[in-house]
Amino acid sequence: MRIRKAVLFSVTALFAATVGAKAADFEMLLFGHRVTVLGSDPEQSLEVDSRQVLKEAIIDIDEVHLISGTPVVIGSASPGGNACEGAPFIVSFPQNAAPRIDGPLDTCFVVTTHATPTQLSFSTAAMPNRMGERWIWSLEGGLKRVEGQTFSADTSKGWAQLREKTASHPGDLLKFGEIAEQIDALLGADKASFKDIIMGVGSGEFDGDYFAGSACTRHMCFEQEAILIASITEQKVYLAWKPSGEKIIVRPVVRDWPEKAKVFLRNWASKWK
């Protein structure tokens, strides 16, 4: 357990560490209230003044802030494994009132936290296959979901920047404006389904002036996968994907693929023969 960051005021005046019982993974007197995390894998519980307020596989206490003059603790709760990232929750300590607990956020993605003197904001990054998520927390209003950002490919990046050979996942190419435009033109009405797969679990690498990367939908590898091949010399992309329970779809048609791209395709598709 940890408190990574504290607001710039007297720590001594606001909380004092205590020697917790051995059963407690975290135990501290915070702003006049005892906050405890008990248990271990597969389940921990968060208690405030001996009242259980949250249960999850992994619970962390991460940050302390002063919002509208009220101390606030941000923690994270995770179900464990690699299915979801830890989701933030907020415990606030208003004067002359019981502590209030908001969250955890309903998300599986990495969350960025930003604090101002009057509110907290939480956001996830927009990706080619999904909008970003955003929440605002205030002392009076609590936690509210608001509209997140839409994804936009970087128009300053294209084939020239791909020559830097920094891409390591096929989804990275969807962030290059010039290349993403060509991918969208090939996919047409299928772009949403392809992007959902290619942004999944996967990797890619360069072989000379070719980039080849593949990915699968989380928990559906060998059942639903996609491959993306890019020829820097020709400045063309070649796509294929296999929806669950269906045959492989190829864009453009295979006869228009250069021989080296066909080799990548055959190797990728061999698992279904």
Question: How does this structure look, described?
Answer:
The chain is mainly beta. It folds into 2 domains: 11-146, no CATH class; 159-272, Inhibitor of vertebrate lysozyme, Ivy, CATH 3.40.1420. The protein contains 5 helices and 18 strands. The chain is elongated, with a radius of gyration of 24 Å. The model is unreliable at 1-23 (pLDDT under 50).
Beta-strand percentage?
Answer: 35-45%
What is the terminal-to-terminal distance?
Answer: 49 Å
Strand-pairing-aware structural class: mainly beta
Count of DSSP-assigned helices: 5
Give the total of domains. 2
C-alpha-based Rg, rounded: 24 Å
Main beta-sheet annotation: 5 strands, antiparallel
> Spatial order of the strands in the main sheet?
1-2-3-4-5
Q: What string, H for helix and E for strand, traces the elements in order?
A: HEEEEEEEEEEEEEHHHEEEEEH
Residues in helix, %: 10-25%
Name the descriptors.
five-stranded antiparallel sheet, 5 helices, single chain, Inhibitor of vertebrate lysozyme, Ivy, 18 strands, 273 residues, mainly beta
Condensed summary:
With 273 residues, the chain is mainly beta. The protein folds into 2 domains: 11-146, no CATH class; 159-272, Inhibitor of vertebrate lysozyme, Ivy.
